[in-house]
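Notes from hallway chat w/ T.B., transcribed later so I don't forget. T.B. wanted the structure written out for a chain they're using in a teaching module, and asked if we could keep both sequence and structure tokens in one place. Agreed to drop them here.
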Amino acid sequence: MLRCEVCGSERAISYKEIGEPLLKLERELEAIEGLGDPDFAAFDRVREEYYRDVEASFGACECGGRRTFAAPLRCRACRSTDIDLGKPWRLYD
């Protein structure tokens, strides 16, 4: 889910739409996993590169802002990031 940094509009993207960035991610993860010991820094690098590729392809918003994976949740009425989600109504042990 990509969210605009300015207006907060959201854009869901299917794996089918992502295409090449997803194929590239899968190839790189397979290469890292084939090395044996997990290299968490490499996993992080690959994930960040994937995020950049997807944001570059699908990140333009109609308002002129940029959609990212890390954009804050915003109120749809006033676009404020100061949102009170309330208390959780169910807690699990």
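Follow-up for T.B.: The first strand starts at residue 2 and ends at 4. Might be a good example for the class.
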